[in-house]
Amino acid sequence: MKRNLLLxxxxxxxxxxxxxxxxxxxxxxxxxxxxxxxxxGSTDVxxxxxxxxxxxxxxxxxxxxxxxxxxxDTGVTLDWGMGxxxxxxxxxxxxxxxxxxxxxxxxxxxxxxxxxxEGVSNxxxxxxxxxxxxxxxxxxxxxxxxxxxxxxxxxxxLVVTKIEPSKTIFADxxxxxxVTVKNQGTADVTSSFDVAWxxxxxxxxxxxxxxxxxxxxxxxxxxxxxxxxxxxxxxTTVSATVDSASTVAESDETNNDLSVTYVANxxxxxGILPLSKWGYGGDEPLNNYKSGEVVGDLxxxxxxxxxxxxxxxxxxxYIVNFNLGSDVNQISGNPEGVGSGTVKEAxxxxxxxxxxxxxxxxxxxxxxxxxxxxxxxxISTDAKYEDAKGWSTPYGPYKYGTxxxxxxxxxxxxGAYQAVLTDSGEGDAHGVSIYSMALxxxxxxxxxxLKEYHIAEGxxxxxxxxxxxxxxxxxxxLPEDATSTVDMPAVAVEYTNTNLFTVTAAVAxxxxxxxxxxxxxxxxxxxxYISGIKMGTETRDVTPLKDDPNSVAFQxxxxxxxxxxxxLISSKGKMIDLGPDKDTEEGRHIMVPITxxxxxxxxxxxxxxxxxxxxxxDFVAIHSSSDSIVTACQDYSSEGILDISAWNxxxxxxxxxxATVELEVVDGAGSDEILSLTVDLFxxxxxxxxxxxxxxxxxxxxxxxxxxxxxxxAMPNSNLGxxxxxxLNSNGRLRHTGDDEIVISATVTDSGLGIQxxxxxxxxxxxxxxxxxxxxxxxxxxxTTTATTGINDAHTFVITAKDNxxxxxxxxxxxxxxxxxxxxxxxxxxxxGDALCIAKWTVGLEPSLDMDHFKFVGDVQPTSDxxxxxxxxDALFIxxxTVGLEPxx
Length: 889
Prior knowledge:
- The chain is mainly beta.
- The protein is about 5% helix and about 50% strand.
- It has five helices and 65 strands.
- β16 and β17 form a beta hairpin.
- The longest helix has 16 residues.
- The N and C termini lie far apart (about 170 Å).
- The N terminus is likely disordered.
C-alpha cells in the first residue's frame, strides 16, 4: 500500500511538471491545447485535469465541427477510472468514476481525432461536472477550450517579379535583359521548370527563348539573362511566363506572367532610344595628338591636385601647384624631374565633370566661364574634349571633359609652377566639379637614350549599366558597347621595350569593374584609385603585344568612368641580325653569323635561341668569334631549336659577332626558310640589360646547278704594247705609263643567285693564284696587274667565277708576252750585246729588227719613264748598266 501511494505521488509530481503555468486549479484542458491534423488522418489529444483536492468522478461534453473533425466514441481511451464515451455527431460525452484520489494533474482519457476536411474546429467543453468522493458533492471547476486545425495544402506559387532594364534600352546596342522569378508559395519546388520569354513590337515576335530553372525554395528568387539588339526605335514589349509548360502544381495558376513595354523615344519613363542618345558607349574615342622621338624621357604628374565636388564646394578658384623634381612621375612611379635636361614640350591638362548645361545658366562652351592662368599668365586651350550621358533630364546633357593647354614656353626645367582655374559662372555656383589637373613634360637628356612616343588624349565617358536599388538595372548593355577604342600608330621595329601609360577619371579599382585591352592583351581593374583626386593611372609593359596599328581600348563593366589619356613609350634597342638573306642548295653548308650591332654598352653575356626548320637543316657546329666565346650550346634537332650561351668576360663594344652557326641544307629545294632569333638574356658586364631587337634572315633553297658563264680578255695597258700584244717586266723602276701593266677583264652572267666572287690565276707572272677581280659594272669585272716573272714567255690567265650557290665557271684569256726592258736581242739578259745591237740599228746595220718591238723594249732612257724612242742614249745607258754605273733598266 505504501508503494502504491508513493508511485501515485510520483506520477502526480511528474504531471505537475508539464502543467501550463497559467492553468487554474480544478481545470479541464487539452494537451496539446491546439492540435493539427490532416484529412483522413488521426491525431491523439489528451483530456487533462488539474485538481487541488481529491475527486471521485467527472462527466463532460466536448463540442466540435464535425465537417472538419470527428471524435468517435471508439477513439476514446479512458486513462482514469471507469466510464464511457458516446458520440452524438457534433459532440461527444465522456464520463469517469474512480476511487478517492489525492490532488494532482491527471490524464483522464486519450482522444483520437480524425480529420475530415480543411479548416479550424473549436474543441469546446460543456456540461462539465467534477465531484468529491461519497457522499458526492460538486467541486467548483473551470475548463479551457482547444482547437483542431487541418491546414490548407502546402503548394508553391511561382511569379515573375521584375524584368530589367527598368528604364531604358537602346537601338543598335546589345541590351542585357534580366528576368527574376520568385516562389511566394508555401512549398518548395524541387523539380525543374521553364520560363518562356518573348520580345514583340505589338504585332509580331522579334525574338524569344526559354530558360530552365532547377528548384526554387519558399521565398527564394532566381534570375537569368538574355541579350537582344534592337535595330528599330519602336514600342517594344518584353514578356516572361514562369512555369510556361505547367509542370508545377501551384496554389495560384493565374499570376505567372509579367510584361513591360519600352516606349519609343521616352526618356523619362521606360523607353527605347536611338544609339545617338547613348553617351556611355565609346562615342568620343581619344584623339591621336602627337608622335615623336626624343633623346630623353616623359613626365606626367598631378602636382597637389585634389578632387573638388562643385555641388557641396562651389568653385570660385581651383589651384594646383606643380614641383618638377619632387612631384611623383605617374609614368615611372617615382619622384622625377628634368634635371640637367631641356624641356621639349609641356602640356597642361584639366579634367572636369558635372558641368550643368543646359540646366542652369551656364553657356554651352565651358571655357567661356572656366578661365586658366599658368604662373600668372592667362592661357587658352590648345584642345578641348567633352562627352555627356546623352539622355534623360536634367542630368543627360551635363558635360564631362578635358581641357589641354600648351605651356611649353612657361616650363623651363625643374622647379615650382602654379595653375589657377577660375569659374565665373554666375548664378550657378554648384555648376561644375574638377577631378584634377596634370602636367605632361617631354624633355631632352642625352643620358636617357632615344625614345619614341605616341600620345592620345581626350575624354570618353563610359558606363555599362547602372543599378538602382530594388528596381535593378536602369539600363544594361554588353561591355563591348561600353568600350572606347583608339588605334595608335605602330612602334618602329628598332624600338624594343614598349610601355603603355593610361589615365582614367572616376575609376575605382573594384573586382573586374573595368578592363584595359591592348591588341590581344586584356587586364581586369588595372587602374589603382589615387586617393583624393578620383583619378587612376597605370604603366604596363606591352612589348610582346605590339601590332600595327596598336589598339588601345578602355572598357567599363559597371564602374562608370572616363578614358582621358594613353601614351605609348618605347626605348630604342640594338639590332641583332643573322646576316643578309642568302641563296643555297641542298647538300651545302651555310654560315649564319649572329651579330649585335653598334653596342655602346660593354657586352657581357647572352642566352639566345635560334629557330630553324628542322626538316630543311641539320645543325653542324657552333663557332665562337674574337669578341664572344660560346660557353654552351644545345641542339633540339627535332624541334629546330638551338639554345646558345656566350660571353665576353672583359666586355666589348661596337659590332659584336656573338656566335656563328653552321648548318647543312638537307631538304627543301624551292622553299624560302626563315631563321629567327629570340633572346632570353642580353646583359653588359655589370649585369645591366641591353635593349635589343632581333632581325630574322631568309634562306632560299634552290637548284643552283649551271647557269653561270664567264668570258675574259687580257690586254696591255699601253698603245705600243697593244700593237705587239706584250708588256714589260716590272722591277720597281718607272716605266712609260702602262707599258708594264696588264688589264684583265671578265664578263660574268648568272641565273639570279648572285655572283659571290671572280678571281684570276696570276701565278705564272709572279702574282696570286686567286687574285680577286673588282666589279666595275653589273656583271663586269676587271683587274690591272704587273709581271715580275715569266719573262720572254707568252701567258694566258684562267678566270674563275663563283655564285652564291657555290657554282663555278672558268674561262682562259688570250695570250700575251712579257719582255724584259732593254733585252732587244731576247735572251733574257741585258748586256753589251743589247747596247751594240742598238748602236748598229741606229746606222742601219740591223734592218731585220721588228720596229715596234725594238722601240718598246729598247727604250730605257730617260731614266724616269722612257720616251718610246730607241737611240744611242739607250745604248749608252745599257753599256753603263753592264759596268754597274746604272740600275737595271
